[in-house]
Amino acid sequence: MTGPTAPTKPLAVLIGPPGSGKTTVARLLARRLGVGFRDTDRDLEAAAGRRIRELVEEEGEAHFRVREREAVHRALIEHGGVLALGGGAVLEESTQLLLRGHTVVHLAVSVGQLTRRIGTAASRPLLVDDPQARLRTLLTVRTPIYRRLATHTVCGDGPSRVVAARVAQLFAA
């Protein structure tokens, strides 16, 4: 009989705005480093059996944030590889506290690049109607939080493989 296993700590936690490439870069980075990959948005969707957009539309943003906080907490304890968080996960003060002591990488991306990546924002419920204006507002609120929480800030402009290589350099010893 074996006892409980000790909690695991992610090698890196990627944060940044919607469209910054957190999921793609995290997947590529995990592959480069030979570790697992996890995305809390995918965890939420799997647990709820619905897409993020549906969760926000049906339950409201406040309820979604509660689910998100729980998913982040679980992932921070269970996952030892590269972890991508949803863009708004950092809005919760309790999530900010959970990130203390972790290697947090902020993917900083220009508004122009984000706008090109997001397009019409049909799958991003908080950016519909006027994606560029909403994105600017979102960045005004979130960027100071991303910067404060980040252990490292990496330019996220450019192809995902290039961004993943930039982040991987942080772990080269």
List the helices and strands and how they pair.
Layout: E1 12-15, H1 22-33, E2 37-39, H2 40-48, H3 52-59, H4 61-78, E3 82-84, H5 93-98, E4 104-108, H6 111-118, H7 131-149, E5 152-155, H8 160-168
Parallel strand pairs: 1-3, 1-4, 2-3, 4-5
Verbal overview:
With 173 residues, the chain is α/β, with parallel strands linked by helices. It has one domain (12-168): P-loop containing nucleotide triphosphate hydrolases (Rossmann fold, 3-Layer(aba) Sandwich). The protein has helices at residues 22-33, 40-48, 52-59, 61-78, 93-98, 111-118, 131-149, 160-168; strands at 12-15, 37-39, 82-84, 104-108, 152-155. Strands 2-3-1-4-5 form a five-stranded parallel beta sheet, sandwiched between helices. The longest helix is centred in the C-terminal third of the chain and has 19 residues, at 131-149. The N and C termini lie far apart (38 Å).
Summarize the structure.
The protein has 173 residues and is α/β, with parallel strands linked by helices. It contains eight helices and five strands.
Any descriptors?
alpha/beta; Rossmann fold
